[in-house]
Amino acid sequence: MPAKCTHAARTALLVLCTLISVGAWADCRDTVPAPQLSGKGALCLFGFCLYDAQLWSAELPPSYDAPFALEVTYRRAVERSRLIETAIDEIRRLQSPVPPDDTLAQWQRAMTPAFPDVKPGDTLCGVYLPGRGARFYANGQLTTEVNDPAFARAFFDIWLAPGTRAPSLRRHLLGKSR
Question: Which residues of the chain have pLDDT under 70?
Answer without folding.
Answer: 1-26, 178
